[in-house]
TrEMBL record:
Protein name, entry field: L-2-hydroxyglutarate dehydrogenase, mitochondrial
Family annotation (PANTHER family): L-2-HYDROXYGLUTARATE DEHYDROGENASE, MITOCHONDRIAL
Domain FAD dependent oxidoreductase as annotated: residue spans: 50-224
Protein's UniProt keywords contain Ribosomal protein: no
Lineage: Eukaryota, Metazoa, Chordata, Craniata, Vertebrata
Catalytic activity entry: (S)-2-hydroxyglutarate + A = 2-oxoglutarate + AH2
Organism in which the protein naturally occurs: Phyllostomus discolor (pale spear-nosed bat)
InterPro entries the record matches: FAD-dep_OxRdtase, FAD/NAD-bd_sf
Name of one Pfam family that matches: DAO
GO MF annotation terms: (S)-2-hydroxyglutarate dehydrogenase activity
EC top class, as a word: oxidoreductase
Length: 407
């Protein structure tokens, strides 16, 4: 028996073993699906897969789709603990198709975001999924912000973001009549989409290609399967057993004021960043003592809080008092008042922190530790823009799985 593995996001494991929890009671139709997600698929009636993906968010589903398209002969399963797919980060995000301007040149985030945005547009066109390539203005309202804006523009050019332009006051007004600013980056490649719809479409592709999606299946533990010589001869390459039960993760920040149009026509203001007191807790007073203990004892959170104390307090203050948020928004749109806005939904961001309290900026994919580490690939840090990058990430994961597990 190995210690249970903790997941920050999703994990791909090469498994050919039993699922002691059993599948029969685990399948439910997912919301908004034309057909039940748990039916169909080559292996739906068995409890054994060649590859298992844990987590039916956009990253897990894109990876499952990439793997089955590349290896149609393998039996592949997605295990999701909720009754519906993509209801956590993927279903609680801002819906922006990011252009890739913000990220450090040469980082995985920068490369995968630029590739991923192109792939998402192409995929939506193929599947007839609605999106809007509405563009984005990144605005400097104070003189002192202009050097930073210009540096960001240069970074965007280095990252290969398409169509970037620096524009002046009068052009800002032409594009956004209510917005005031001294200079802006016009970023026409940015768009918006409903990522839950995209993720569900990935699941559909996956199932049509023969994959199985099992909802209401919470993985608690992964252990080595007993390997009988006869089953090994039978092709059981990396036997492991996956058990149902509980797991944890980690989280924190965002920066800046955003006005984000949504596919439904509303506009979201924010998000600002405050500490969530519960994993998957979307209401202001959601609290879990166990989650808080985990975050405090197992991450560099205390150091992060001490290093960013005044920023954290100001974010908390803005979250409590809408008038404080409005003050910030008025720097960009002076006419806006408290009466024009109301509280919107929240999302909880899974964000890896190192022991020194630094946010881990880039995506992190790696194997686990110990003997079982040779059989799993973890997606340890996939914060924004992982939805934009999901198709590019899935290609990378499929390459890594191919190499690591010698498929
Ligand atoms: C507020 C907010 C705004 C964002 N805005 C954007 C944006 O505009 N553009 C963008 O590109 N990105 C954005 N992001 C980031 C993006 O949403 C995430 O990076 C992306 O959704 C991560 O996908 P995922 O599949 O890793 O995680 P998730 O969507 O959270 O999926 C993980 C899944 O794993 C399941 N799971 C967990 N543990 C288990 C277990 N033990 N057994 C079985 N299943 C399990 C969960 O139930 C969940 O369904 C935003 C994120 C937040 C929080």
């Amino acid at each position: 028996m190995v210690p249970s593995l903790r997941y920050l996001g999703s994990a791909c494991g090469l498994a050919r073993g039993g699922f002691p929890g059993g599948f029969s009671g685990a399948c439910r139709p997912a919301l908004g699906r034309p057909r039940p997600l748990c039916q169909g698929g080559r292996q739906a009636s068995t409890s054994s897969f060649d590859v298992v993906i844990i987590g039916g968010g956009i990253v897990g589903l894109a990876s499952a789709r990439a793997l089955i398209l590349r290896y149609p002969a393998l039996s592949i399963g997605v295990l999701e603990k909720e009754k519906d797919l993509a209801v956590h980060q993927t279903g609680h995000n801002s819906g922006v198709i990011h252009s890739g301007i913000y990220y450090k040149p040469e980082s995985l985030k920068a490369k995968l975001c630029v590739q991923g945005a192109a792939l998402i547009y192409e995929y939506c066109n193929q599947k007839g999924i609605a999106y809007k390539q509405c563009g984005k203005l990144i605005v400097a309202v104070e003189q002192e912000e202009i050097p930073r804006l210009k540096a960001l523009y240069e970074r965007g050019l280095q990252n290969g973001v398409q169509g970037l332009r620096l524009i002046q006051q009068e052009d800002i007004k032409k594009k956004e009549p209510y917005c005031r600013g001294l200079m802006a980056i016009d970023c026409p490649y940015t768009g918006i989409v409903d990522y839950r719809q995209v993720a569900v479409s990935f699941a559909q592709d996956f199932q049509e290609a023969g994959g199985s999606v099992l909802t209401n299946f919470e993985v608690k533990d992964i252990e080595m399967a007993r390997e009988s010589p006869s089953r090994s001869e039978d092709g059981m390459k990396y036997p492991i057993v996956i058990r149902n039960t509980k797991v944890p993760d980690s989280r924190f920040p965002f920066l800046g004021v955003h006005f984000t149009p949504r596919m439904d026509g509303s506009i979201w203001l924010g998000p600002n960043a405050v500490l969530a007191f519960k994993r998957e807790g979307y209401k202001p007073f959601d609290f879990s003592a166990r989650d808080i203990t985990d975050i405090i004892t197992k991450s560099g959170l205390i150091k992060l809080v001490l290093q960013n104390f005044s920023y954290g307090v100001s974010e908390m203050y803005k979250a409590c008092f809408l008038s404080a948020t409005v003050k910030h928004l008025q720097k960009f749109i002076p006419e806006i008042t408290v009466n024009d806005i109301f509280r919107g939904p929240a999302g909880v961001r899974a964000q890896a922190l190192d022991q020194d309290g630094n946010l881990i900026e880039d995506f992190v994919f790696d194997g686990g530790v110990g003997i079982i580490g040779n059989r799993v690939l973890h997606v340890r840090n996939a914060p924004s823009p992982a939805a934009t990058s999901s198709l590019a990430i899935s290609r990378m994961i499929a390459d890594e799985v191919q190499q690591r597990f010698k498929l």
